[in-house]
Amino acid sequence: MTNSANPKLRSRAWFDNPDNIDMTSLYLERYLNFGLSLEELRSGRPIIGIAQTGSDLSPCNRHHLVLAERIREGIREAGGIALEFPVHPIQETGKRPTAGLDRNLAYLGLVEALYGYPIDGVVLTTGCDKTTPALLMAAATVNIPAIALSVGPMLNGWHKGERTGSGTIVWKGRELLAAGELDEEGFIKLVASSAPSTGYCNTMGTATTMNSLAEALGMMLPGSAAIPAPYRDRQECAYRTGKRIVEMVHEDLKPSNILTKEAFRNAIVVNSAIGGSTNAPIHLAAIARHVGVDLPLKDWETYGHKVPLLVNLQPAGEYLGEDYYRAGGVPAVVAQLIGQGLIEEGAMTVNGKTIGENCRDAPIEDERVIRTFDRVILKEAGFLVLTGNLFDAAIMKTSVIGEDFRSRYLSNPEDPEAFEGPAIVFDGPEDYHRRIDDPSLAITPETLMFMRGAGPIGYPGAAEVVNMRPPAYLITEGVTALPCIGDGRQSGTSGSPSILNASPEAAAMGGLALLETGDRVRIDLRKGTVNVLISDEELAARHAALEAKGGYPYPASQTPWQELQRKVVGQLNTGAILEGSEKYQRIAQTMGLP
Ligand code: FES
Ligand code: MG
């Protein structure tokens, strides 16, 4: 046991402060109320917070309510005292208007809890999409020792002998429904088959991505991100995580020691190799800004674009979460990348060892699921960063560009990797759903579909709506995907080759606000450009006319938080954080409390 009184513990300012015996007695009396003894509270044992994201409102993370018991046992075993508390709930698919609105709210709440209460270290219970970045952002700001525990993915889904993956099956089901091959009940049953157990989405969506990246960043025990939620290994991992955070407090191993530039580069490289979500650049930018690391969007292309896809998980591939774990999970992927010199091996991790020490020798257990470099699934699997007169920055996940799309749009030998077409413009998801099947829009296989009003201000929090299915009549003709471009986000479980996260958004008067249906737009992936083919003068005139009308219109706020966040939220290319909050850094060390 390592529970000798540590004079540096910040919790001693509450429970063992001879200079302020009045307040100390008040703090003690109320925490004794919880059933702890005076002896325990004054023993110099580290107080470990368990930031609990599981609740009935958050089914993806609900299993953390069970895992917390094992975390507590680990904390107690190592000589710490556990205090569990709730984090503002975030559930990706159930929250209206979008869970994107809640990441910064959960962040704010957790910063206050970690800073303002007697907590020496914290276990971050991560899982569903936004929960992982929200918690890492808060840990980065406060900078007390912190370790993440993934709740783990659901078991694999099955339907008629085939794997059905979270989210991905919805996109497929929608096509079948639109084509009349499935009725509503059949559609619901097909979708439900993808969710056979507790845990988060079993595809390489944003949840699997962000938990894999939390491990790649060094914030999770090696090998732990991919363990499925119901597996016994998950319980054991919760116990080890609880033990380890107590040691981290004694070692004073903090997020700022782990979340370095090297760690973020590693995460970018890993993201390409796993075929990670297009939400990852937003969330990593946010975490980086809160810990004070410079991570421009262009780094995703510089370090990530050429890295091949090694992990064969839906939506880019075939398999699901259980297969990923059995094949070796994150360490097996990192080992392959180390073999090519693509990983900064010296980056520190929560177990006190470097990522190189942890992963160098990790084997692949199933080469169908995790590939070696001589059998990659796709050569350049990272993101392209695009720019032009419609936005300053947007990204495209090239790993999901299918053969059908490639042959239709990207195979002109005279003009490789480039195409152009007329734009159809939708103002938000409601407008799209109302009009998409209207034959008078005359959408053809050449049309480029634009979604605007879906950014952090326009659709507060930024909606996951850029990937749009074509009209039903095109689907029945076999055109299942048109190019989509927009200022919103895209679900990580979607296999659509969209250009998204366009910043600045229409609601911030970015170029998309000036686009009109019928304008011709040219996309050149080799040059990294997206341009509407009209003159600068015409664009300036449209800008002036829209300004005169009060700017790009977007719906009124429905809640106080929507209004407050809209005033200060930044754009997707820089993390969509609460602008100004990034100046509060390492506040456990710098803002007065010990
Ligand atoms: Fe929660 Fe996918 S909806 S993890
Ligand atoms: Mg999502």
In short:
Keywords: Iron, Iron-sulfur, Lyase, Metal-binding. This protein has 23 helices and 14 strands.
What does this structure look like?
This is Dihydroxy-acid dehydratase. Belongs to the IlvD/Edd family. GO terms for molecular function: hydro-lyase activity; iron-sulfur cluster binding; metal ion binding. Residues 45-358 form the Dihydroxy-acid/6-phosphogluconate dehydratase N-terminal domain. Residues 369-576 form the Dihydroxy-acid/6-phosphogluconate dehydratase C-terminal domain. The chain has 594 residues and is an alpha/beta fold. It has helices spanning 12-15, 21-32, 38-41, 64-77, 103-116, 131-142, 168-178, 184-192, 206-216, 232-251, 255-258, 261-274, 280-291, 298-304, 321-326, 329-339, 355-359, 403-409, 428-435, 472-476, 536-548, 560-568, 587-590, and strands spanning 47-52, 81-86, 121-126, 146-150, 157-159, 162-164, 383-386, 393-397, 418-427, 448-452, 484-486, 499-503, 520-524, 529-532. A five-stranded mixed sheet has the order 11-10-9-13-14. The protein has a four-stranded parallel sheet with strand order 2-1-3-4, with helices on both faces. A three-stranded antiparallel sheet has the order 7-8-12, covered by helices on one side. Helix 6 links the parallel strand 3 (121-126) and strand 4. It is globular and about 75 Å long. It starts with 11 loop residues before the first helix and ends with a helix. The model has no long low-confidence stretch (mean pLDDT 94).
